[in-house]
């Protein structure tokens, strides 16, 4: 087939633009508009009543829009119906008469403001650990229990069960010695599991045995420093057991009426369930030993609800007094804590027994210093201060339960009682950690006094100051006392010898200082911390605390100029000498900066400090750094770079970027950002000069361009380079740096052959062709306006690009090359126009340079011919069976291009388009809808002036009906 | 697995008072129709006495078991010989619990030497080829609550080295002084035993304080009476060195099957005693 000459259609862009622009129509208020908020019409409720009408009629009858979801339902939507009734209930409840009842209901449930046990658990387990060997006393499950015949009479069954219980008390025990803490915890976890298994396999007696065995472990206080953790582990099992029993009895209450409501009364419980429940209580009442009997009964306290209304309120006081029988004060106080915990869960309104528990504890307080305890401590080599801290979790918990929604008077009374016991530090500490922060804060001067009066021996004082500090961080003390409090407290804190004790206190008090005072005080505090932590490199053991200090400071000081002007802040940062921690801290600071800094800054203090911080982050990057980590660091540094602005001082800005480039050369995203920033700077300059560069600004802009030109090659990502070259070239062009722009474009063209087949995107390998296609389209639209270099040939860049495209190894089964050629055709057609569709101010494009010179046009036509030949060649190669679909698509694509850009009055072109049309339909792969639409378009176009030849064309294009 | 027989007593706790009507259903489940020679239900109540080896010697104890005393015995024919349809058949029944003549319906009690037990037995007689089916089921008899309110009779007690019985070397004992009180020595069996105990002082560390419930059973037999005390239940009320001068609660729930109200008849008697031990 001979080469087809190309005849571009001449375009009048202005008139085309005018004709296809939509008419602007004012939207009148009240008109339908899809984005207008939905208005609810009053007619809605009426419509719901009209049952007969279908949803469609109801929606069409209303002028305004109806929510399609609600209109689907015939009648009121069930959810909103519920909501409506619930509304009426709540409104009714708001009346005074029912108010009280609701308050009462509230007191029956613990609110979300009550810190639950689960949050304490982990803390205790982490805090109370031991390296000593532990032992565990367990019965080895005897096979006897399984021998009971199912048919035996009740009495026999009961007897064997009781015998089993006896068994486990007397023989068949085994003591496991020399367990490490880990082993011990595993054992207990095993027990928990075997409890569940036993229960699931209906071996209730075995389950009970396990629970008894476990709670028995709580009477053992060897390895006393582990006791709190042991308590946590074992009470978990007890909780499991309590839940199992409760659920089982609850499931027995299920009958044909369905399940019981949450607030059922004992009357609605059936006899079988009651009987089972009673049996549990009887069984437990016959457990010989005190501690297991107490714990197991407490565990199933909730089941009292099945028996009688008053059950729980009678049980709690009895169990409370029962604890008096426990001689060891530590065991007793944890038993009390458990009772309070269960009590709060089951019946939080019964405050009395909580108080009773605490008062009983105070009565037995002297036990702690009794001979029995002291002897035990000597044997175990545990010192008093450590021993006393073992009490804290239990007392804290009891006091927290008491203090929950308690009136002020009660708290005052509690405090008085503690005072009577000689300002005991242990109690004081628990009061401070359990009571409301506001309550403590209001009396902080009193507390400081009391702390001072405490005797040195016993409970460590720094813990007291720590607790007080925690309260003050949450609530504000009276205005007038604030400075005095800080002075008094810090006086004591600064005297602490042990760096760990010191830093734990300081960590807490820094927050108070930040909250209420200025930079000056914080600076003093920081200085003090540095002074304490520097000797012997004590900071090495205190990184978490130091880190938290930094975090607290940056949460309170959002003004970074103030923050960095504190002399001690940077020296403080220098204490982080371990790199990983240092980088963490730097990240925190940068995050805070990006979050809180409102305006761009040029403050030298901030810049210096943050450059230092960023440099630290950057320098941590090495070959082993993870991609994510790099991305994170880069985005933080980018955030900082974006926040730096020297206003009109562009030179300074550029030199900052130069400095940043030298500092952050290892992070590619930062370099990309810098190139963008510099480009932006160049455009900013252009804007300031309103497009007319003076000699000075022209030189500056060239400097910017040069910056980009030497920065881009150092990037490894090929697409980042391509896009940046194009981008910078555009910027250079806009700033009338023609030769520089040429250089950028040349660089881009010569880079294309290096584009790999596959590129890595978010960790996945993907073919690069779609990206390349996108890039080329973008590139072409820029090339339209790039004027030819006087010394190079006509359309030097386009030719270069075509060569590159020709030589690039394309995927075998892709048509991207042809698509690109078609796009080249569009570009060339646009280039033949008398006036181009767009221009850059002050840059003469080829339309002005050549002025429609015939030689120039011939050159273009030659190129077109070559391109068309390529396209047609490719179409021919697609003649195989399996590529027919692609052929059809491409043919249509090319047809459309000719339609849009070619001059169809030319016969050969006209014939070519008809051929293409037929080719597209030839094998039945064409989409009929598209074809019909295309034909309609042609017919519509033919009505336009000067387009009458389209009518004729339309007649020549047959539509193939699908058979 | 052909036919299954089950007795379901109406009350879940199976407790009936003397004079009440025991009611329930006999449930027969079977896949096929059952041919039988009649179903009968028997209610039996008996007192078993066992002689203690301690008081009369091993052989006498073995041989001279006292014949069980029958308190109540009645049988009813529930279904005449015939055929029962397949599936589940429920046959309701009722027995009045009445004393017969001078035979008192004692409370159910499971002791060591005295046993009072009431059972329901359902028998299904079948032809030679199939075994007879039997199902027994225990039910519990309680005496009606005593008329008139029991006067509580509180008692105070003190324990010192001097008050202890059966101690050999009184001098070697550490000094201690414990006092306390029981709210009542006459306890209602369904209510727990309550009281308080205070360790006023004790030289040595207290290890444990336990409460022992002891029963004394007396059996009449040929050679006179055999009286035996055995422990029913031992409950620890204090563990470890308890706080001095702080009252510790005494609280014990009576195990219902193994205790009964103090009872005295011509042939046997059961009393309850409480001891307090302290190591």
UniProtKB/TrEMBL annotation, chain A:
Keywords: Endosome, Protein transport, Transport. GO terms for cellular component: endosome. One of its GO terms (biological process) is Golgi to plasma membrane transport. InterPro entries: VPS35L. Residues 44-69 are annotated as: Disordered. It is found in: Endosome. Residues 53-64 have a biased composition (Low complexity). Belongs to the VPS35L family. This is VPS35 endosomal protein-sorting factor-like. It comes from Gopherus evgoodei (Goodes thornscrub tortoise). The lineage of its organism: Eukaryota, Metazoa, Chordata, Craniata, Vertebrata. The gene is VPS35L.
UniProtKB/TrEMBL annotation, chain B:
Pfam families: Vps26. GO terms for biological process: intracellular protein transport. InterPro entries: Arrestin-like_C, Ig_E-set, Vps26-related. GO terms for cellular component: endosome. Its main location: other. Component of the commander complex that is essential for endosomal recycling of transmembrane cargos; the commander complex is composed of the CCC subcomplex and the retriever subcomplex. Component of the retriever complex, which is a heterotrimeric complex related to retromer cargo-selective complex (CSC) and essential for retromer-independent retrieval and recycling of numerous cargos such as integrin alpha-5/beta-1 (ITGA5:ITGB1). The recruitment of the retriever complex to the endosomal membrane involves CCC and WASH complexes. This is Vacuolar protein sorting-associated protein 26C.
């Amino acid at each position: 087939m001979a080469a087809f000459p190309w005849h571009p259609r001449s375009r009048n862009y202005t008139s085309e633009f005018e004709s296809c622009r939509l008419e602007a129509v004012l939207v009148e208020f009240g008109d339908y508009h899809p984005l207008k908020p939905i208005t609810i019409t009053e007619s809605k409720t009426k419509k719901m009543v009209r049952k007969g009408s279908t949803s469609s009629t109801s929606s069409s009858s209303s002028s305004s829009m109806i929510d399609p979801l609600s209109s689907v339902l015939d009648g009121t939507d069930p959810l909103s119906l519920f909501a409506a009734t619930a509304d009426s209930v709540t409104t009714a409840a708001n009346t005074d008469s029912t108010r009280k009842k609701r308050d009462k209901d509230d007191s029956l449930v613990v609110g979300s403001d009550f810190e639950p046990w689960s949050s304490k658990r982990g803390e205790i387990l982490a805090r109370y650990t031991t390296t000593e060997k532990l032992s565990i006393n367990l019965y080895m499950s005897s096979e006897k229990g399984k021998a009971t015949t199912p048919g035996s009479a009740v009495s026999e069954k009961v007897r064997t069960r009781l015998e089993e219980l006896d068994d486990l008390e007397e023989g068949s025990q085994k003591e496991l010695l020399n367990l490490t803490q880990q082993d011990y915890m595993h054992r207990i976890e095993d027990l928990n599991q075997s409890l569940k298994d036993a229960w699931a396999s209906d071996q209730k007696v075995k389950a009970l045995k396990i629970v008894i065995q476990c709670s028995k472990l709580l009477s053992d206080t060897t390895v006393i420093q582990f006791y709190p953790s042991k308590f946590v582990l074992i009470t978990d099992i007890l909780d499991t057991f309590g839940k199992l029993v409760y659920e089982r009895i609850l499931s027995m209450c299920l009958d044909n009426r369905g399940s019981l409501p949450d607030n059922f009364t004992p009357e609605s419980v059936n006899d079988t369930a009651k009987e089972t429940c009673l049996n549990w209580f009887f069984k437990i009442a016959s457990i010989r030993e005190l501690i297991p009997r107490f714990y197991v009964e407490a565990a199933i306290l909730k089941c009292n609800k099945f028996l009688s209304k008053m059950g729980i309120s009678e049980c709690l006081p009895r169990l409370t007094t029962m604890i008096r029988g426990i001689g060891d004060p530590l065991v007793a106080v944890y038993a009390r804590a458990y009772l309070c915990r269960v009590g709060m869960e089951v019946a939080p309104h019964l405050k009395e027994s909580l108080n009773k528990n605490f008062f009983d504890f105070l009565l037995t307080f002297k036990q702690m210093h009794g001979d029995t305890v002291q002897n035990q401590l000597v044997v175990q080599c545990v010192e008093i201060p450590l021993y006393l801290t073992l009490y804290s979790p239990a007392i804290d918990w009891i006091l927290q339960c008491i203090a929950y929604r308690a009136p002020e008077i009660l708290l005052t009374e509690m405090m008085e009682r503690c005072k009577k016991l000689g300002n005991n530090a242990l109690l004081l500490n628990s009061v401070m950690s359990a009571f409301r922060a506001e309550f403590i804060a209001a009396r902080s001067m009193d507390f400081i006094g009391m702390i001072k009066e405490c005797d040195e021996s016993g409970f460590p004082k720094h813990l007291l100051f720590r607790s007080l500090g925690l309260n003050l961080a949450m609530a504000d003390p009276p205005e007038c006392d604030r400075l005095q409090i800080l002075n008094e407290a810090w006086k004591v804190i600064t005297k602490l010898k042990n760096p760990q004790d010191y830093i734990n206190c300081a960590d807490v008090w820094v927050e108070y200082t930040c909250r209420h005072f200025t930079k000056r005080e914080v600076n003093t505090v920081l200085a003090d911390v540095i002074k304490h932590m520097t000797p012997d490199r004590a900071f090495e053991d205190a990184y978490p605390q130091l880190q938290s200090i930094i975090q607290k400071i940056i949460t309170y000081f959002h003004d970074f100029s103030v923050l960095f002007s504190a002399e001690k802040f940077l020296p403080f940062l220098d204490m982080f000498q371990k790199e990983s921690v240092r980088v963490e801290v730097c990240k925190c600071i940068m995050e805070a900066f990006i979050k809180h800094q409102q305006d761009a800054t040029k403050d030298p203090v901030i810049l210096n400090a943050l450059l230092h911080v960023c440099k630290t982050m950057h320098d941590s990057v090495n070959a082993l750094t993870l991609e994510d980590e790099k991305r994170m660091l880069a985005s933080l540094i980018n955030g900082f770079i974006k926040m730096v602005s020297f206003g009109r001082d562009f030179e300074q800005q550029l030199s900052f970027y130069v400095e940043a480039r030298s500092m952050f050369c290892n992070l590619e995203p930062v370099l990309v950002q810098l190139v963008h920033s510099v480009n932006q700077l160049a455009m900013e300059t252009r804007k300031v000069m309103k497009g007319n560069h003076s000699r000075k600004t022209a030189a500056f802009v060239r400097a910017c361009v040069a910056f980009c030109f030497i920065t881009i090659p150092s990037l490894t990502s090929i697409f980042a380079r391509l896009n940046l070259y194009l981008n910078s070239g555009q910027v250079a062009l806009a700033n009338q740096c023609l030769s520089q722009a040429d250089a950028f474009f040349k660089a881009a063209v010569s880079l294309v052959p290096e584009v790999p087949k596959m590129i890595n995107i978010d960790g996945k390998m993907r073919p690069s062709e779609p990206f390349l296609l996108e890039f080329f389209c973008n590139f072409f639209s820029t090339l339209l306006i790039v004027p030819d270099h006087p010394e190079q040939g006509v359309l030097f860049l386009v030719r270069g690009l075509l060569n590159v495209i020709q030589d690039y190894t394309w995927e075998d089964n892709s048509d991207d090359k042809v698509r690109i050629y078609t796009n080249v055709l569009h570009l060339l057609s646009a280039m033949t126009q008398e006036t181009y569709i767009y221009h850059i101010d002050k840059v003469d494009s080829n339309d002005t340079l050549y002025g429609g010179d015939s030689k120039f046009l011939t050159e273009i036509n030659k190129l077109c011919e070559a391109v068309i030949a390529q396209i047609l060649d490719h179409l021919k190669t697609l003649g195989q069976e399996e590529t027919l679909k692609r052929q059809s698509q491409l043919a249509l694509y090319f047809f459309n291009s000719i339609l849009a850009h070619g001059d169809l009055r030319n016969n050969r072109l006209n014939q070519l388009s008809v051929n293409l049309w037929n080719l597209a339909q030839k094998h039945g792969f064409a989409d009929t809808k598209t074809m019909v639409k295309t034909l309609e378009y042609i017919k519509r176009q033919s009505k336009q002036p000067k387009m009458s030849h389209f009518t004729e064309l339309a007649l020549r294009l047959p539509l193939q009906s699908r058979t | 697995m052909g036919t299954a027989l089950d007795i379901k007593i109406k009350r879940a706790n199976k407790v009936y008072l003397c004079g009440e009507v025991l009611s329930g259903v006999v449930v027969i489940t079977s896949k096929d129709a059952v041919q039988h020679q009649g179903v009968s239900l028997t209610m039996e109540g008996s007192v078993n006495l066992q002689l203690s080896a301690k008081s009369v010697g091993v052989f006498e104890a073995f041989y001279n078991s006292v014949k069980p005393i029958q308190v109540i015995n009645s049988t009813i024919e529930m279904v005449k010989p015939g055929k029962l349809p397949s599936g589940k058949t429920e046959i309701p029944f009722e027995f009045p619990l009445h004393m017969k003549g001078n035979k008192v319906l004692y409370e159910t009690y499971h002791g060591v030497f005295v046993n009072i037990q009431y059972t329901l037995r359902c028998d299904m007689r079948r032809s030679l080829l199939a075994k007879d089916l039997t199902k027994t089921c225990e039910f519990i008899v309680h005496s009606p609550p005593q008329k008139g309110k029991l006067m509580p009779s509180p008692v105070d007690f003190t324990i010192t080295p001097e008050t202890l019985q059966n101690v050999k070397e009184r001098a070697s004992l550490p000094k201690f002084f414990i006092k306390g009180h029981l709210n009542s020595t006459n306890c209602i069996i369904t209510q727990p035993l309550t009281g308080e105990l205070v360790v006023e002082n004790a030289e040595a560390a207290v290890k444990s304080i336990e409460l022992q419930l002891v029963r004394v059973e007396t059996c009449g037999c040929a050679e006179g009476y055999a009286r035996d005390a055995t422990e029913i239940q031992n409950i620890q009320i204090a563990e470890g060195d308890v706080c001095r001068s702080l009252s510790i609660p005494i609280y014990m729930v009576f195990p219902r099957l193994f205790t009964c109200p103090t009872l005295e008849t011509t042939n046997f008697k059961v009393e309850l005693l409480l001891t307090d031990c302290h190591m």
